[in-house]
Queue: 3 jobs
Job 1
Amino acid sequence: MAGMSGIELQAEMLRRHCAKPVIMMTAYPTSAARQQTMTCGACAFLTKPHDPDALLDAIKAFTA
């Protein structure tokens, strides 16, 4: 993404009270990124290349 990271986008959405579900996907996972993402309300934190079943499970968990 140009201009900001996914974590920055998620934080901005939270700041603006834009309550949309977030499933974060990253090729560079760190425990700090996972913690920040989940603290900001993400539904899931997946690592690329992601497991298609894990993505479907994350979507199902949110919609259930």
Note: Residues 6 and 31 are 15 Å apart (CA to CA).
Job 2
Amino acid sequence: MNRRLAQHSAVAALGVLTALTFAAAPARAAEITCAPDPHEIDDPALGVGDPVVTASIAVGGTASRAICQTRDPLPGKHAPQDVDYIGFTATQGQAYTVDLVAAGSGLTDPFVGFLKLNDDGSTTSAVQSSAYDGRHSTTVPLDAGRYAILVADGSQEGYPDHVLGTKTIQGEAGTYTVKLSASAPPPVLKSVKITPNPVKGGDSATATLTFTGPILPGGTTAPLSSSNAFVAGGAGSLFAPEGATTLRIPIRTGRVSQDTPVTFSAWVTGVGPTLSTQLTVRR
């Protein structure tokens, strides 16, 4: 779960990294071919200078490229991981979904997302709900302007010298196809309710999270935090599967010497408001 939750923040992190400068690794001999991708070598997200968007996609259409990477930067690249940008123009107030509709055998931990291409050449993460499996992402309604679909793979592998590094992906094994669609915005949290409330310390309760619509393909996470986990805390899964309109999370409580209020807050990862409710744990 922790690894996947970390992946949900990867799109935002990559947007920040574009503002940093990385020293280019010395060129080295490499029997690596990026032939399936006519746009290589670009690597805008982890490189230096302004983003480079040489591929584009039409709304309702598809685009095919390839991830080409190894544990050390390839000649002409600035980082081991290959991160692709595919540009498109958004219409004011429209939400969009990107789906990874095909992936080569080398892409074992792929993820897609959206970035805003700013006028100064920087990028920022668009507000979006990313699927738990990394293969889908849906934005909130966007402002008009230029955006990019981001595609990368987070896989790592162990090498013979016992180094764990970026997985080597090359040739047809790295090919993929993404589809861009105009869509409804992702569902957000509508309400959070805990029953029974109040509850006697040592007994259990249940938090029910209700969404504004069915959870999108690939599922998502809906974290539930407690202001005092020693008195009362969530004990169930935070994963909301595709199609779910509610998520029920068991809450365990401890014995208390006096009635104690505990605030629970919940949200849908990446989008929407944080809603809170209070549970009273009685002595």
Note: Confidence is low (pLDDT under 50) at residues 1-6, 8-30, 45-50.
Job 3
Amino acid sequence: MNQSSQQIRPLRDMSSHVLAQLETMLAQPAWHNGGRLPPEAELAQQFGVSRPVLRKALVQMRDAGRIVSRRGSANFVQPKADILPAAADGQGPSIQTVFDMRRCLRFREVIECAAAEDAARVHDPHATAAIQTAYDRMLALPPGESVFEADFAFHLAIAQATANPYFAFTLRSLKDQIRLTIEFTRKLQDRPPDQVVPRVVDEHRAILEAIKAGDVEGARSAMNFHMKQSVVRLLEEE
């Protein structure tokens, strides 16, 4: 065995040892809801290893979907699968990883872009007023009330404005999965559940204004931008 092979084996053994320690740490109840890992330098010191050894173990945890790395930020532990259930009625796919959340957002993009387009095409004044009401509720959210319910009400009002009941039915069926995705994204951003994000409000306003104007292409485009930004907020992709 050459010298380089002798150097690689201890590195692998050490990273496996650190991986086992990390898994033991994350099995503790304090981490079941996810959260931000300590800085790499602090973790390396805690485990008594170099940062390259620690990073090798972290890569394995990322590959396994146990943690998520945010660009320019830190490593975040994903909530355990047992608190990310399937829909309340026991049917439908469960959300167990960030990749599941991304797939859910992709499906929402397809459905909700079409819903925004149809809502603008139908252009029913009563239905549009309901979207406006949902938007206004988001702006006047009482302290301590979760943003999710106001956000979901806005999207549901758009689905109902299509005059096609399948849009609202599909969105209601996804409510639990959507809630988990939004709440986890907020946790990654260290945002409290009742904090309204100005850029999200701006995106909703653009959708609302296009629907109010009967601008079919504008409504689809605004919703498409909003859904793609949701992926950016989750994964920090460019």
Note: The longest helix spans residues 98-122.
